[in-house]
Amino acid sequence: MYSLVANGADVLELGVPFSDPMADGPTIQRAAERALANHVSLHDVLETVRLFSQTNDKTPVVLMGYLNHVHKMGYQAFAQAAADAGVDGVLTVDSPVETITPLHDSLKAHGIDCIFLIAPTTTEERIQTIAKVAGGFVYYVSLKG
Question: How much is the pLDDT for 145?
Fold first, then answer.
């Protein structure tokens, strides 16, 4: 993480390993498999952010993952743990805007942005809906499929 910042990264995205990374390509899928084989958990990722944030509180850190981990921990508990670690934003790729309110509200209460994806196929109406609740930035997926 320090090397990325030293070489110009403005924001860091850390993936939370998941057993069924449906929104990720083969490289990230293999990375998730390796991480899981080494027992890397959401708690480990949060600890990594906490350690980084102790010496760098200027570079935003966004967690990218799937709702299962967050749901299992509980939205409030996750939001508190993420805030304590120094997380600035969270993107759960399998959480549509229509069902995100409990997580969004928990994150917002702890000063954490809720990041959303849009794609070339996203309708204008849906983009407007996402824009009303998104924080930090909107992640544009530039390719179809």
Answer: 62
How far is 128 from 115, CA to CA, in rounded Å? 14
Q: Global pTM?
A: 0.89
Q: Which of 13, 44, 94, 105 is catalytic?
A: 13
* Burial profile 40-59: b = 16 or more Cβ within 10 angstroms, e = fewer: bebeebbeebbebbeeeeeb
Active site residue 57: no
The CATH homologous superfamily to which domain 2-140 belongs is Aldolase class I (3.20.20.70)
Q: Out of 10, 24, 44, 84, pick the active-site residue.
A: 24
CB 30 within 8 A of CB 21: no
How far is Cα 42 from Cα 65, in angstroms, rounded to an integer? 9
24 a catalytic residue: yes
Tell me the domain boundaries of the chain.
2-140
Which strand (E) or helix (H) includes residue 145? none
